[in-house]
Amino acid sequence: MYELSVIIPIYNVEKYVAQCLDSIVNQSIGIENIEVIIVNDATPDNSMEIVEKYASKYSSIKIINNEENLGLGESRNRGLKEVTSDYVTFVDSDDFLSENVYEDSLKKIKSSNSDLLIYNWEFYREDGEIEPFSIHKPHFKEDMIIEDFRQYPDFIFMTSAWNKIYHKKLFQYLKFPKSKYEDNGVTIETFINANQIYFNNEVTYFYRKNKESITQLIKMSNIEGLVDSINTLNELISKYPNYERNITSLIIKFVDDILFWLCDYEWFVDEELKAIGLLQSVTYNITNENLEFFNENIPFSLLFEGDIRKLNKYDDETFLAKFKYFNRLPKVNSLANLYMDTGEGFNEDNKIAINYKLSRENLLSFDLKNFKNINALRFDPIEGAFSKVKILDISPDLEILSSNGENSLNEEYQVFTTLDPSYIIEAKDVDEIRIRFKLSILNDEELSSLFVDKNNLINDLNNQKEESKKKKGLFGFMR
Hints:
There is one protein chain. The N and C termini lie far apart (73 Å). The chain has helices at 17-25, 47-57, 72-80, 101-111, 183-193, 220-239, 244-264, 269-282, 288-297, 305-310, 316-325, 444-455, 457-467, and strands spanning 4-10, 34-40, 61-65, 87-90, 96-97, 116-124, 144-146, 164-167, 197-208, 335-341, 351-355, 362-367, 376-380, 387-395, 400-403, 414-416, 423-426, 432-441. It contains 13 helices and 18 strands.
């Protein structure tokens, strides 16, 4: 009998699948002790030709073929029907593992009599760039046994299915939905029903991040998928009311994420209204008490807490207008950040933050003596969207290489519509940098002009009025 079953759905991964399978067959536990269940999800590329070479060499690799593309969740479900061992785990086919993951983890989950084990993971990027902090990243610095995850409120965010080993007692809860973000409800239900959870800090799963991150490809399907997850989480609250505060913390973060997507990406107005309506339909479990619990126990802040509190106080049109276009000033914190790239990219560990009182002209000084081998600097003059900035002077005389503004660096002011306006500045061996700049928040007239220019709102609204009688017209409260 195999000691562990590994389920690997395959779709469009011919570039990476060999590295993934190499990391499985070379596990220190021995491939003969691992049941590898490959689910071919009707992949259109040459991935399966590579897989079949491994299957012909290792008898413990079996292949299941989907007649049509079913998606990650359904493919995992099909693989689960073939499991013959007492433990199962999942691997995404473009990821890979350190060679001792399974041997070390099985020893620990068995000796501790745990039903669930979670192991550490790292982002892997072929370009070497360091990824920023992820809410799903384990925060423990050493091995731990967790009997009640409610004692660790941010534990609720560790919802990825692929860095875990599940005992057969939990198999009944491993029923993945078809939608995006299929891990969330499934893994939380295993958290709730595991007799105890072992966190293994000694091994590593490498999660591959491509250059085109999903955050650059946000579509309505992403919002719909996350709303589906929120629906599932609401159902779990009804089923397990003692876990309400913890589960609602995850819902709150997902709502904050969707509001970020709506604010920071380009959408048609009808898409934005649809998203607001979806959010309003699933946020009934968010109370002031749950928001207070989040603020007191979760180690990162919400960007849109005020909007979350007001989400169901307005109709969708009024909320959208107030949220995105005409009420940005309350979102702005007068907090400037200077990031130092010391060889590991820009990250939170190498940052200086300064709170300042916003005025028409601002002068900030940053002491860099504690940072060595600086390659570049990133200056974020403010936290908040819809601002315009004019850099008057940088001392010593350093060159601004780029910005994420809407217009050219050659223009007098840069206009920013992102939540983190930033400049990339050349680096030299300096102990201090002083930046003098003007900054103002775009007023309603400027916002309206920007909105019309970018989305052709007037024509869009006129067309919607003619094509649909469901609405009286967008932003009617302003007329």
